Amino acid sequence: MKVVKFGGSSLADAGQIKKVCDIVLADPSRRIMVVSAPGKRNDKDTKVTDMLIALAYKCMASENSYKTQLEAVVERYASIAKDFNLGNEIIDVIRKDLQDRINNRPEGDDKFMDLMKAAGEDNSAKLVAAYLQSLGVDAKYVNPKDAGLVLSDQFGNARVLPESYVNLQKLANEKSLVVFPGFFGYSPDGEVVTFSRGGSDVTGSVLAAGVDAEVYENFTDVDYVFAANPRIIKNPHPIPFFTYEEMRELSYAGFSVLHEETLEPVFRKGIKVNIRNTNNPSAPGTFIVPDTGDPAFAPITPVVGIAADKGFMTIHIEKYMMNREIGIGRKILQILEEEGVSYEHTPSGIDSISIIVRRTNCPDGKLARITKRLYDEQQVDRVTVEYDCAILMLVGRGMTRTIGVSARATNALADAGINIRMINQGSSEVSIMFGINEWDAEAGLVALYNEFFPEG
Prior knowledge:
β16 (422-425) and β17 (431-437) form a beta hairpin. The radius of gyration is 24 Å and the shape is globular.
């Protein structure tokens, strides 16, 4: 069995949806398809999810003009339904669904926003199922609540709860082709709750793990995952396969091919992931595989990919004789935990530790409290903060067996006139992180790419 997920660009209009359904029907092992909300039809278009967010804000502001925005959302679906000659019934279902969400608005803006955002994927799945049924296909829309997809009640940033995997096992025995909406599930209290943006990738991964799929196919709009951002590097090197760990490092550092939480469910089950192109389904795409030591998946080059991401800040903490103080690292990180701030890297010296966090995770109020607590509770000597930080990630299993990778990287950055503010190598030696200035991020990516992929 294969679970196959399609992104918003693959569902933007009737022509794209026809391609999607042709792909699914071409392989009988594709038994569960996960769909996103319709994406942009062109560069000037608006994604349905963004339209729903705008609609939710209008409702929260008690604006009487929300009906205009509501009809604009309905029309996106209606234009697809009309192209498929599906009639008005499915359009009426979608309009009623949206109006019911507004009429039954829950208390709390975060809950209402999740309820409205989820309508994009939910109604996309209903529409795709209706089209397949019009072709005579035994297909059925399955609601995440009925399937038992249970998420934590962190609205807008939910995590899968363990019982979901047990609940979803029954879908493996479903005779019909299952059309499942991505991006959302239900809290233990029965409220709609979403993953963070792009979370349909996570839904597909959870379903693949739940039914013990052989492969999780994730269709997007590129033939492969590339060694670097194609918006920065012209015709970058395609990656035919790499491991979960390598992809995790790259997606965390700015690779936008997969949501960064996608791989955890399939990693635990050892399920292969195949990134494919809806517009070129004959291309084999990129496989993400377990690192089993199989010679067939041995690294060809020391570096498999390079990523850059902005928006970081570094909290530098100094205390004389820090290395002799038992437990101080735990105590420092506990302060961040209690303030609700996650960290990315923690390079350290004998009397200092630096904590890299995403700027959005540590607004000024939290930073002020953290700083005060470090002085008051841990009696540190100095706390300084550097803003405008970017990270460059050099990723590849082959680095563990190749001499001089770090030297080549630092020389390449030096030759490009880029100052390295920090270096941190992961304990697995699969990645090397360079902290640089935000304004050097793209130039740093180009410098490292040209060093390790000189022939493009």
